[in-house]
Automatic annotation (TrEMBL):
It catalyses: Hydrolysis of terminal non-reducing beta-D-galactose residues in beta-D-galactosides. Gene3D superfamilies: 3.40.50.880, Glycosidases, Golgi alpha-mannosidase II. Its EC number is 3.2.1.23. Residues 1-35 are annotated as: Disordered. InterPro entries: Beta_galactosidase_C, Beta_galactosidase_Trimer, Class_I_gatase-like, GH, Glyco_hydro_42, Glyco_hydro_42_N, Glyco_hydro_b. Keywords: Glycosidase, Hydrolase. Residues 623-675 form the Beta-galactosidase C-terminal domain. This is Beta-galactosidase.
Length: 678
């Protein structure tokens, strides 16, 4: 078994970004349709029934083995592959491809019993026991060694199986660990980063509260403390955790890639999840995949989905991406779990395709009868094949088959806008000791994305250090922490003729979470025409700041504009009366508050228009989303009342086969996929 030291040397940093096989090896020109399939929960007779129904529903791909470790390795080192051999053959014989998962997210009970150091601990030192799932200590040499061994054997056994189309590593990597094993790995990570303790003490500002370290062994993960933990220690711990999990991913990826260099590899993201820096991770995957569970009762569920689609498409950077999991009906982890009303599953599935997905898959194929998720929906619900859920699934499968030849591998068009997103900024902005806990970073990003979505503007996401020159408009909802390179990148973007809009609390801290002189970086103040940022004025949850023409939420700032600012929209009344709420200098805009949704939409729509951005279609009724993918125009109606969408020219709706001239009528959750008539 390798030691922790040996494992530490498998650091990804030194190796170049991963360039692996493409998804087309898996999709072969189709939109994949299917879901997680857990046949170990069912007698083998049911498998035959499953396959019959899968064919009926047009299922082309199932993800197998996600939670099969105890079945595959019932005792340490044993291998039980017979059932999986039979299953792989059965699926292949029926033309269904397999995304084969490494089972490493849920170790068998024997592992924790025999090797307690494989169990993670929370910040209070409590063990996360087996009996649930995802109870693995990411930095444990023992865990990693067992994970590597089962991965190696799976790859050797199934690498040449004709059903295999893709590898799925682990599942939603999401464990934090504050154990001694993690502490040792954290110290190694810190030694790599800082080299000397002096450098760490400086970066963490340990002069504050007598925190200076004299030896490395004294440095710990940010465990439960009497009062607020050191924020830079917390920030580095989040960076470390993302990296440690990524090491686990890369180790398994490299094993399967050695056996099957032609088979793409993915690992499914939880969307908008703090634990993994998705920009870093996505670059190491062949195919980016995501799990998405909007609340059917959320009136902006469709906008949330659009955000996740845009984010995942951008993380794939022009490459393919998949919905690895969604729910055909209710989930079972909210307070109250609502089913999807008739039509909503179809709408959100086709929306994913519109916004670029090359696979629409579910958790899970057949609803479980036992275990913690027996009330979570499946494509085949407890009601069986006659149930509404399965009937809708069948319809979606049939429609995807219709669309596949026209859509698969084509690109979403109109990506002139980038919304900047960064995990380091997110992590740092969530710290204890901040001025307001009335909002979090995802909520602010979501507010800006919603404004763009409602303004019918298709947006991408980008990292603040990416090349931004191709975008006409760059939106920074908030980036509390920015590196020098990112700041220079933003300034260069504006100098190069780009339009930049930034929300409040941006450019406050450097990469060690040290507040920049003046409370906001000098280069940014210069860019936006801010002479002095006197004070931050956070707002209470129900408080509004009156601004000329709108009302601000969450935050306000006491700003003195520089002489060279071009335009100012002032606060009205209150302490900030007459001071600038919005500033514009040339093409750079700064908003020191978050306007209410309608005002934000109007503002961003105006700025987008000024930047030369055209919506995919004019005159859309409220609630209808229009997206162009390849040569097709998708119209997605998120409301329940019938509307007519004006569409100039002559088209054919690929879903109905009917001609469309001048306009198309969409009923409740209706969708049209239009191709220009010759
Ligand atoms: C995902 C997970 C699945 C299933 C699903 C339920 O987070 O990957 O295994 O638990 O949630 O919504």
């Amino acid at each position: 078994m390798p030691t922790d030291k040996e494992l530490a040397s498998t650091d990804e940093e030194s190796s170049p970004p991963h360039k692996g096989p493409s998804m087309s090896n898996a999709t072969r020109g189709r939109i994949l349709f299917g879901g997680d399939y857990n046949p170990e929960q069912w007698p083998e007779e049911t498998w035959h029934e499953d396959v019959r129904l899968m064919k009926e529903a047009g299922v082309s791909s199932v993800t197998v083995g996600v939670f099969s470790w105890a079945r595959l390795e019932p005792t340490p080192g044993a291998r039980e592959f017979g059932w999986l051999d039979r299953l792989m053959d059965l699926l292949h014989d029926n033309g269904i491809g397999v995304v084969l998962a490494t089972p490493t997210s849920s170790p068998p009970p024997w592992m924790g019993r025999l090797h307690p150091e494989t169990l993670p601990r929370d910040e209070d030192g409590r063990i996360e026991w087996w009996g649930g799932r995802q109870h693995f200590a990411h930095s444990s040499a023992v865990y990693r060694s067992y994970a590597a061994a089962i991965t190696e054997d799976l790859a050797a056994r199934y690498g040449s199986h004709p059903a295999l189309t893709m590898w799925h590593i682990n599942n939603e990597y999401c464990t934090y660990d504050w154990s001694d094993t993690a502490a040792a790995a954290f110290r190694r990570w810190l030694q790599d980063k800082y080299d000397t303790l002096d450098a760490l003490n400086t970066a963490w500002g340990t002069a504050f509260w007598s925190q200076g370290y004299d030896i490395w062994e004294g440095v710990l993960p940010p465990r439960h403390a009497h009062y607020m933990n050191n924020p830079t220690q917390v920030l580095d711990f989040k960076r470390f955790t993302s990296d440690a999990l990524m090491e686990c991913f890369v180790a398994e990826r490299d094993i399967v890639a050695r056996h099957t260099p032609h088979i793409p590899v993915t690992s499914n993201f939880m969307p908008f999840w703090q634990g993994q820096d998705a920009w870093e991770w996505a670059g190491r995957e062949d195919v980016v995949s995501v799990d998405i569970y909007p609340d059917p009762r959320d009136p902006f569920g469709g906008q949330y989905s659009a955000l996740i689609h845009d984010m995942t498409r951008s993380q794939a950077r022009g490459g393919p991406w998949m919905i690895m999991e969604q729910a055909a009906g209710p989930v079972n982890w909210r307070g109250v779990n609502h089913p999807k009303p008739h039509g909503l599953n179809r709408l959100w599935s086709l929306q994913a395709v519109a916004r670029g997905a090359d696979a629409v898959c579910y958790f899970q194929w057949r609803q479980s009868r036992q275990g913690a998720e027996k009330f979570h929906s499946g494509m085949v619900s407890h009601a069986g094949e006659r149930g509404r859920t399965f009937q809708e699934v069948k319809r979606i499968g049939a429609e995807l088959a219709l669309l596949s030849p026209k859509v698969a591998d084509s690109q979403v068009r109109g990506d002139d806008v980038a919304v900047l997103l960064d995990w380091n900024a997110w992590w740092a902005s969530q710290q204890a000791g901040r001025l307001s806990s009335e909002f979090d970073y995802p909520a602010v990003v979501r507010a800006w994305h919603r404004a763009l979505w409602e303004a019918n503007t298709t947006a991408s996401f980008a990292h603040p250090e990416h090349d931004l020159s191709a975008y006409k408009l760059v939106v920074v909802p908030q980036l509390y922490l920015l590196t020098d390179a990112a700041i220079d990148n933003l300034a260069a973007y504006v100098r190069g003729g780009g339009t930049l809009v930034s929300g409040f609390l941006t450019g406050v801290a450097d990469e060690d979470d040290r507040v920049r002189p003046g409370g906001m970086d000098e280069r940014l103040r210069e860019l936006f025409g801010i002479r002095t940022l006197h004070e931050w004025w956070p707002l209470d949850a129900d408080e509004r700041a009156d601004v000329e023409g709108f009302r601000g939420t969450l935050w306000s700032e006491e700003i003195e504009a520089a002489d060279d600012v071009d335009a100012v929209v002032p606060y009205k009344g209150g302490e900030l009366d007459g001071l600038p709420a919005v500033l514009r200098k040339g093409r750079a805009w700064y908003l020191s508050t978050l306007p209410e949704p309608d005002a934000l939409r109007t503002l961003i729509a105006g700025i987008a228009e000024g930047a030369g951005i055209r919506p995919p279609l004019d005159g859309l009724p409220a609630g209808v989303e229009a997206v162009r993918r390849g040569d097709l125009l998708f119209l997605l109606h998120h409301g329940r009342d019938t509307v007519t969408v004006p569409v100039p020219g002559r088209h054919r709706d690929l879903l109905t086969g009917e001609d469309v001239t001048g306009g198309v009528e969409l009923g409740r959750y209706g969708v049209a996929v239009l191709e220009a008539a010759p």
